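Work Package 4 report. The design task specified in the project plan requires that, given a folded chain encoded as structure tokens, an amino acid be chosen for each position. We show below one input record used in the internal validation round.
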């Protein structure tokens, strides 16, 4: 059965991910997983719907999930009050106090030849 993309040339097929436009990296490591038959059939169907290989589909989905998890864990969310305090400190930084000036002086001395 032909899809609407095959029948109507004005409709573009799904675009590849940004990873498809990057320089290919050597695949020298393996990640072996075992899954049940129904899951594999579902993933294979999804890959076919996107006209991608099963490996490409799985690698892209796995990478996206990993990036999402890392971003969630490494980013922090500020309250509106905290965001305003942070922004104000960036825009109007406090003047250096005596302790900070002393630290800079000591650092300059240690770097001087």
């Amino acid at each position: 059965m032909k899809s609407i993309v095959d029948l109507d040339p004005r409709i573009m097929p799904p675009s590849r991910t940004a990873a498809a436009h990057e320089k290919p990296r050597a695949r020298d490591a393996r990640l072996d997983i075992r899954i049940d038959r129904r899951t594999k059939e579902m993933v294979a169907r999804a890959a076919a719907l996107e006209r991608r290989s099963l490996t490409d589909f799985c690698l892209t989905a796995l990478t996206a999930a990993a990036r999402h998890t890392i971003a969630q864990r490494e980013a922090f969310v500020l309250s509106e009050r905290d965001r305003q305090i942070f922004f104000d400190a960036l825009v109007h930084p406090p003047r250096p106090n005596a302790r900070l000036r002393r630290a800079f002086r000591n650092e300059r001395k240690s770097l001087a030849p």
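Confidence is low (pLDDT under 50) at residues 1-12. Validation will be extended to a larger panel in the next phase.
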